[in-house]
Design the sequence.
């Protein structure tokens, strides 16, 4: 029952008035029950992994909270982190690791396990890791109520694809949960609606076009491969940001605040800005706090900084699953940031605020295309397939623009481009002035007309075949 | 106090918003219903509803092998060669559950003297062609709203969710092929082709038709449903003919447990004194099929002349 299923939306609409009647102090328990039931609808046995993760986090948290010698605390945190990372690796990378080991020794020593990763496992294990490390660092107290920790990990809007919330922020959010206002409900519903539109109308319309071209790259026309690569950049953006919007919107309706994960990523003026401030911000912050800085961050000289960056990007690639395509994707992005640094830094502050408009636009264009290039590796089934896609596009030569133009005149492509235009226009407006502030200034009639328009689009043009969110598999 | 007033205002606004949303939904519903009348063509429920009430000599029920007998102008051709009034109600991928629904709905509008059931063995072995097919919203995207059909859908647990979807009108509102003609690709482009057999395609086709292989439990259940349909038809004084369609020899030979199915089918029909006309063993050349197992235009005409027309004429006497 994904967030964009009609069943979920109907249950939310029907359950919300009941939820509002429940005393604020009882809402946590209700949310926990709903969260576990929700997660079980995907695979009931995966709940055991979720409970196991919570158990490791709980026990480690209690132990780390006690006044023990540093060596003991270090041993506890090492063990807990080891267990959690092993759980993650077994779930997402067992087949890859065994295959790689077999290839290394040259024969099939071990049978390749067929593990189907539990939905959202990378997200809640990373959440649990942040909690354990924060307790170890004493930046947050341990949670002594097991049910509270379990809710923190399993909270249904975020369990499948984030955002990754830190315990401190979560506690603050829970404390405010009792003060739900009509404005929260309205803005939450607006965000939920916008997320639904991006997923059901845009992303799921683009997905089959991308799939068709990428299925057999050697047989697809270069123009289709090129256009599909562009479409994928928007498909994954609309898909993933839709989930985040829906999770944040749904939470707001329940009185909880989740951090926003996206900030108009394709308007970034550098790859560094794209990753640090605009795309999957909670994961970037996680890597910065728990990997980049412990490795020394930028405090140990230029080359060490670059090496640390490369390690972070490589690992963030592997976070999506142990696969060469993700590794190349991560490495490529690390390389971009590395090169940007060598070229003299293109931080958001220097370019975004002070650069001439045409320079900013040119940088945006370059950044977008660099990211797009890396998405080709992210989306392709194998690195070879990605290379085939790139070589076929490059080899198409002078006939490519004509082929692309011919494709673009087909109705399906025109509709796709128009929908992408709507999303990007919204992002551009939002970049100039926060859309939330803007919409509040509109007359109610206009606000409602826009809402009805989105609802009508969902009904008329939505793809309700319930394609999974791309990031649910990670 | 202020907060209480804010909530009161919010509730009022929410009620108004929901009312506006329902109104908008109603408008979309109306528009999609208009589109159905404007563009529907071959949808069986539409055909039943839009044809003036009449007494037919025969109706044809079954899956795609029945539907293909009405492709393009073949329905009119059958009327012409038999001199009878025959309505084709075959639904691609529609097993006995779908046929039963179509038959029940047909009886709310029309009368018939006889029923021809084209029995495809594969439809008696998987829910994909029966219960699951009824959940397939494509079945209703061109179906105009009709209270009689809704009542029929809501009457049985197996069609209850399909009934709710039908009542909501959502399949029609969300029909992505609203501008596409209501004619299957088979009928539109393939029906006049001649097929050249490819062994790999034969294998794929059989795997598609029998997703769960031979399921004797399912077969018994669906044959019991056929038995109920035959009993009902006989009770209404209708003649019933059951036939197995012509198939290319290599496909007929490759069908799993076809003899077992034929025996089981005969056992169901015998108490009703309904004979089984098995044309699957007739020798039709590969050139008379447009794909692995469906007769093309030439093949359908040959089948009419050789077998079906004489059968219908003699049975009608």
Sequence:
């Amino acid at each position: 029952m994904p967030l964009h299923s009609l069943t979920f939306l109907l249950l939310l609409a029907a359950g919300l008035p009941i939820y509002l009647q429940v005393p604020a102090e009882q809402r946590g328990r209700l949310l926990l029950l709903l969260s576990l039931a929700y997660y079980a609808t995907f695979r009931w046995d995966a709940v055991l992994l979720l409970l196991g993760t919570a158990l490791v986090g709980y026990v480690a948290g209690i132990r780390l909270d006690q006044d023990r010698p540093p060596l003991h605390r270090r041993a506890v945190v090492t063990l807990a982190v080891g267990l959690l990372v092993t759980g993650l690796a077994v779930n997402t990378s067992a087949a890859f690791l065994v295959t790689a080991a077999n290839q290394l020794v040259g024969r099939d020593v071990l049978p390749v396990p067929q593990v189907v990763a539990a939905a959202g496992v990378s997200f809640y294990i990373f959440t649990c890791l942040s909690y354990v490390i924060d307790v170890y660092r004493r930046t947050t107290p341990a949670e002594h109520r097991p049910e509270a920790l379990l809710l923190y990990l399993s909270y249904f809007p975020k369990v499948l694809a984030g955002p990754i919330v830190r315990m401190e922020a979560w506690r603050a959010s829970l404390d405010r949960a009792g003060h739900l206002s009509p404005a929260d409900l309205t803005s939450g519903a607006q965000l939920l609606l916008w997320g639904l539109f991006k997923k059901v109308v845009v992303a799921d319309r683009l997905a089959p076009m991308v799939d068709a071209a990428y299925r057999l790259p050697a047989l697809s026309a270069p123009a289709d491969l090129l256009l599909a690569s562009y479409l994928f950049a928007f498909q994954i953006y609309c898909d993933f940001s839709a989930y985040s919007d829906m999770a944040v919107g749904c939470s707001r309706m329940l009185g909880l605040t989740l951090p926003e994960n996206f900030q108009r990523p394709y308007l970034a003026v550098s790859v560094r800005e794209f990753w640090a401030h605009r795309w999957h911000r909670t994961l970037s912050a996680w890597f910065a706090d728990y990997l980049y800085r412990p490795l020394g961050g930028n405090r140990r000289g230029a080359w060490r900084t670059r090496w640390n960056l490369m390690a972070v990007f490589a690992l963030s690639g592997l976070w999506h699953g142990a696969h060469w395509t993700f590794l190349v994707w991560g490495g490529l992005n690390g390389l971009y940031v590395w090169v940007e640094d060598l070229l003299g830094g293109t931080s958001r502050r220097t370019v975004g605020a002070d650069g001439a408009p045409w320079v900013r636009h040119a940088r945006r264009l370059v950044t977008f295309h660099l990211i797009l290039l890396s998405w080709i590796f992210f989306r392709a089934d194998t690195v070879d397939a990605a290379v085939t896609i790139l070589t076929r596009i490059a080899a198409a030569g002078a006939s490519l623009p004509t082929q692309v133009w011919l494709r673009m005149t087909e109705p399906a492509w025109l509709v796709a481009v128009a929908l992408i235009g709507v999303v990007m226009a919204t992002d551009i407006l939002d970049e100039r002035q926060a859309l939330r502030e803007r919409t509040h200034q509109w007359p109610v009639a206009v606000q409602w007309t826009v809402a009805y328009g989105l609802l009508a689009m969902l009904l008329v043009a939505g793809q309700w075949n319930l394609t999974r969110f791309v990031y649910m598999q990670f | 106090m202020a907060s209480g007033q804010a909530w009161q205002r919010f509730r009022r606004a929410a009620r108004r918003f929901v009312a506006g949303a329902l109104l908008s939904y109603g408008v979309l519903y109306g528009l999609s219903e208009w589109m159905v009348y404007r563009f529907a063509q071959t949808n069986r429920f539409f055909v039943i509803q839009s044809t003036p009430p009449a007494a037919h000599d025969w109706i044809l029920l079954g899956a795609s092998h029945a539907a293909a007998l009405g492709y393009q102008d073949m329905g009119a051709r059958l009327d012409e060669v038999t001199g009878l009034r025959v309505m084709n109600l075959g639904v691609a991928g529609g097993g006995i559950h779908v046929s039963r629904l179509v038959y029940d709905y047909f009886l709310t509008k029309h009368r018939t003297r006889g029923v021809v059931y084209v029995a495809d063995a594969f439809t008696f072995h998987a829910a994909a062609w029966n219960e699951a097919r009824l959940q397939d919203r494509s079945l209703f995207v061109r179906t105009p709203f009709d209270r009689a059909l809704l009542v029929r859908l809501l009457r049985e647990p197996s069609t209850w969710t399909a009934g709710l979807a039908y009542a909501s009108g959502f399949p029609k509102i969300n029909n992505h092929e609203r501008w596409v003609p209501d004619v299957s690709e088979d009928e539109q482009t393939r029906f006049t082709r001649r097929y050249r057999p490819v062994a790999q395609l034969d294998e794929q086709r059989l795997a598609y038709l029998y997703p769960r292989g031979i399921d004797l439990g399912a077969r018994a259940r669906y044959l019991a449903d056929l038995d109920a349909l035959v009993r009902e038809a006989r009770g209404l004084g209708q003649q019933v003919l059951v036939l197995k369609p012509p198939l290319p020899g290599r496909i007929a030979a490759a069908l799993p447990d076809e003899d077992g199915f034929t025996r089981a089918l005969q056992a169901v029909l015998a108490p009703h004194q309904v004979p089984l006309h098995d044309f699957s063993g007739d020798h039709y050349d590969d050139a008379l099929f447009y794909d692995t197992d469906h007769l093309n235009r030439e093949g359908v005409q040959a089948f009419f002349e050789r077998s079906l027309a004489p059968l219908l004429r003699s049975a009608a006497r």
